[in-house]
Amino acid sequence: MRILILGGAGMLGRKLAERLAAAASLGGRAITGLHLHDIVEPAAIAAPFPVTTAVGDRAVSGVAEAAIAGRPDLVFHLAAIVSGEAEADFDKGYRVNLHGTLNLFEAIRHAGFRPRLVFSSSIGVFRGPFPETITDDFHTVPQTSYGTQKAIDELLLTDYSRRGFFDGIGIRLPTICVRPGKPNKAATGFFSNIIREPLAGHEAVLPVGDEVGMWHASPRAAIGFLIHAAGLDSALVGPRRNITMPGVSCTVGDQIAALRAIAGDRVVARIRREPDATIQRIVAGAAWKFTPKRALDLGFVADKSFSAIIEAHIADELGGRIAA
Amino acid sequence: MRILILGGAGMLGRKLAERLAAAASLGGRAITGLHLHDIVEPAAIAAPFPVTTAVGDRAVSGVAEAAIAGRPDLVFHLAAIVSGEAEADFDKGYRVNLHGTLNLFEAIRHAGFRPRLVFSSSIGVFRGPFPETITDDFHTVPQTSYGTQKAIDELLLTDYSRRGFFDGIGIRLPTICVRPGKPNKAATGFFSNIIREPLAGHEAVLPVGDEVGMWHASPRAAIGFLIHAAGLDSALVGPRRNITMPGVSCTVGDQIAALRAIAGDRVVARIRREPDATIQRIVAGAAWKFTPKRALDLGFVADKSFSAIIEAHIADELGGRIAA
User: Fold this and answer.
1) Do A239 and B155 touch (CB under 8 A)?
2) 3-state helix, strand, coil in chain A (%, to 5)
3) Which domains does chain B have, with CATH numbers?
4) What angle do CA A107, A110, A116 make, to 5 degrees?
5) Beta strands in A7-95 (DSSP E)
6) A71 φ/ψ angles, rounded to the nearest 5 degrees
């Protein structure tokens, strides 16, 4: 099977490509080729099948068509302007997250093949006030432009799938934590920063209060979701093709307590509190308590706890070592 | 105040214009001008203020800008490709119902004024399986392209309003019944046809079974919703700017029973049963039982019963006369 990853230079795209290279197959089918596409050049990876890369802006005419020219059997659409940037730059967010996605969907429709398409949506499609727990039929009324764009993409994915233009599955990812590498422009970046940076011996800024909650998934769990979605039987999914992923629900205070238990007070002392009203406003009303029944019924598997998320980070990114 | 009606040649647009002309004011403010815009020439109406008309396709560059050039204080956006046509012509539906709306919103944003914008959404944004009754926080996962386009427009309206580009209110209209005039391409048209045509002495085709239910509002009630939405205090509405309108919940069997009670067996005998699998599929899973708490709290008023809907039609459209 031929696979395309849009957003192949991003953190999830790179990890997904590495996982596919290591497995060499997906759902029992041998992978015969992988194409990585992004707005910046994706890193080459070693794999037992040909890997090609391309750079382009899907909001520009012809780019989406070129990206899918190989008629992949499976498309992972992970490319997006992140929440903070989509909020700061209205036009850029809509250009990439709405029109870029629409261009991709139209390119596939007009090319006339029918791939499985796995789309990374976000729990940012939800916004409070919330009930005690958010069930699978709760309405999506975002209060960020990013969440709006993801919710629109979900609707398009459902309609294009219903029409038979592709076979889409949208997965609403929790906040990815602990996100490795440099901080990005996501407003939710600090949830990772306050774990990753102290473990590496660096200071991290905490812009919100301890009471702020979030719905977390490790990169390892998120890659698991993507792979699982790729192989799902669409007859089991039915017409509601966007599914809230399972996660770990905890507050910033819970995160810090887990970090303290694993790494000690000296590491926790590297967290510096510096309130930021804008970030507080964005994340304070975020969704963080879910009952993701459909995802669990369909076999998606979450991290076991926030401690397990930290331990996965230490194992996968730090070679088992914490900076004393 | 200056008012723009997009979709001014449509049934609701025309009735709204006539109501505004008769009232001469809205929410205590005198109307100083009315501009009617549509894809076909709107009929001129007599009014105590200047009325202008224009024809254009908002999906074409520059047309939306021209339509709002008078910087209206209030915009009614009622223009859309109806459900049956949007399902039959995928490109046309998206071009008008998504891109046409987006062009309008962008035109207002770039013009830099901030009108109240009342948007006619639809209960077509919902699709079953449903709970016993649909509450205001039920998710919008349409299974028609029309419903998809309306749900996307709702999301855009919320985000553009949140950003301060305009002050939007979306009202999810029930099926309009009894719709006067000729049948249009809406898949739900028969709900009106089976009342209107027999009352006028003509045969009507019923393409679905008696058990099919719908959520109804008379044209009179719908115009009331639009006028009420125009004057709503957005502080009371809050960030969730799309509101399910109240209606009358009944089955086709209930409709026919009400018609029989008002007009007798001879009129009912003009209904001819001719099942249509496509229409049955579209309407059989439609939403028809709601608890529209927010709308009621905000003062929207529904018809009292389906009999009242028939009586309103006989009074408003037939001069009180039924064809024997």
Assistant:
1) no
2) 40, 20, 40
3) 2-173+218-244 (3.40.50.720), 190-214+248-317 (3.90.25.10)
4) 65
5) 25-26, 29-30, 33-38, 51-55, 74-77
6) 50, 60
Provide the percentage of residues in chain B whose pLDDT is more than 70: 99
Contact by Cβ (8 Å): A76, A6? yes
Residue with tokens 């046409």, as numbered in its chain: B100
Nearest residue on chain A to B134, alpha-carbon basis: A137
| Residue B175 Cα, gap to closest chain A Cα (Å) | 21
DSSP designation for A94: I
Inter-chain contact A137–B142, Cβ cutoff 8 Å? Answer: no
DSSP annotation of B127 reads -
From chain B, pick out residues whose CB is under 8 angstroms from the CB of A142: 155, 158-159
Q: Which residue has the tokens 């001469």?
A: B24
The answer to whether residue A14 scores a pLDDT higher than 80 is yes
Range picked from A43-47, A82-86, B161-165 for highest mean pLDDT? B161-165
DSSP for B57-95, written as a single string: -TTSTTHHHHHTTT--SEEEE-----HHHHHH-HHHHII
φ, ψ of residue B198 in degrees (nearest 5): -60, -40
The answer to whether B305 faces chain A, any CB pair under 8 Å, is: no
For residue B135, the distance in angstroms to the closest alpha carbon of chain A comes to 10
Which of A140, A145, A148 is facing B139, going by the closest CB pair? A140
Residue identified by tokens 């590491």 is A267
- CB-CB under 8 Å, A239 with B143: yes
Closest partner residue to A139 (CB to CB) among B90, B138, B239 is B138
Please report the residues numbered 72 through 101 in chain A whose beta carbons come closer than 8 angstroms to any beta carbon of chain B: 90
Please tell me the predicted confidence (pLDDT) of residue A283.
84
User: What is the Cα–Cα distance from B294 to B277, expressed in whole angstroms?
Assistant: 35
* Cβ-contact B146, B81 below 8 angstroms: yes
From the list A139, A142, A145, which residue is nearest B139 (CB)? A139
Residue B163 tokens read as 């950003």
The stretches in chain B having pLDDT less than 70 are 184-185
- Collapsed DSSP state (helix, strand, coil) of residue B181: coil
User: What pLDDT is stored for residue B124 in this prediction?
Assistant: 93
Active-site residue, selected from the candidate residues A105, A119, A146, A166: A146
Q: Chain B: nearest CA to A139, how far in angstroms?
A: 4
H or E element in which residue B193 lies: helix B190-199
**A185 has a pLDDT exceeding 80:** no
Q: What is the pTM of this model?
A: 0.96
| Nearest Cα to Cα of residue A220 among A1, A15, A40 | A15
Interface mutation target, options B127, B137, B169, chain A, most CBs of A under 10 Å: B137
| Count of residues making up chain B | 324
Beta bridge partners of B147: none
Number of H helices, E strands in chain A: 14, 14
Q: How big is the A-B interface in CB pairs under 8 Å?
A: 61
Measured CA distances, A65 to A72, A75, A104, B128 (Å): 12, 13, 7, 35
**Of A323 and A74, which is predicted with more confidence?**
A74
Place of tokens 């990206």: A67
Contacts of B304 (CB under 8 A, 6+ apart): B248
Q: Residue A141 and residue B90: Cβ atoms within 8 Å?
A: no
The alpha-carbon gap from A260 to the nearest alpha carbon of chain B, in Å, equals 39
* Residue A94 bears catalytic tag: no
pLDDT band (50, 70, 90) for residue A282: confident
